[in-house]
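hey
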């Protein structure tokens, strides 16, 4: 196959998952589409220059490579976006606490984390990842950005803080809240919920 046909096949196969991943981090959709397009074009450029190893350009071996390029494109866009506008969106502590705890600080019915059974077997299920994705999209915007940069883009804490203009305290608070909310969401929508 020549590079043009390879590119067409890769674009058809990976564009939708790449776009979904990009949209988690970048809005509006057009900007996420641009990041995906840039990642695909970077791949073509590397193929043309011979930088890409022969084995990496075949089948499933391409996916981690392509998503790696996309992660860098997303991170670059986030750095550019937040470099000049260091937003300090505040999460409403009282609203967060009211979703999970009563006035005495006890868990509300159905909000307390429960023990998860057989997480290894669950991880293999595509439906589980769809629920995880939905739960991440339900997080407040700031917490979702911080969590996804750390856990999905593999940025370290200093990079997340620098990119989003956060203090370390704010970063850790966002991570803690995101993890708690994800645990509650997954408990309600997957581990105890109806998955049919």
């Amino acid at each position: 196959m020549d590079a043009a046909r390879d590119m067409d096949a890769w674009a058809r196969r990976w564009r939708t998952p790449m776009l979904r991943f990009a949209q988690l981090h970048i809005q509006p959709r057009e900007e996420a589409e641009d990041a995906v397009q840039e990642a695909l074009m970077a791949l073509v450029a590397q193929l043309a220059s011979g930088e890409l190893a022969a084995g990496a350009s075949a089948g499933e071996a391409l996916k981690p490579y392509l998503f790696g390029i996309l992660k860098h494109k997303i991170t670059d866009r986030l750095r550019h976006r937040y470099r000049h506008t260091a937003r300090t969106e505040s999460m409403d502590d009282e609203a967060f606490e009211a979703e999970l705890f009563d006035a005495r600080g006890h868990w509300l019915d159905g909000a307390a984390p429960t023990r998860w059974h057989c997480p290894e077997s669950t991880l293999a299920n595509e439906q589980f990842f769809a629920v995880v994705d939905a739960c991440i999209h339900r997080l407040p915007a700031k917490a979702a950005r911080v969590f996804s940069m750390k856990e999905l883009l593999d940025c370290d804490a200093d990079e997340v803080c620098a990119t989003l203009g956060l203090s370390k305290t704010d970063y850790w608070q966002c991570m803690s809240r995101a993890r708690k909310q994800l645990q509650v969401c997954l408990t309600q929508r997957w581990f105890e919920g109806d998955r049919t």
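Residues 84-91 have pLDDT under 50 and may be disordered. The chain has two domains: 3-84, 93-191.
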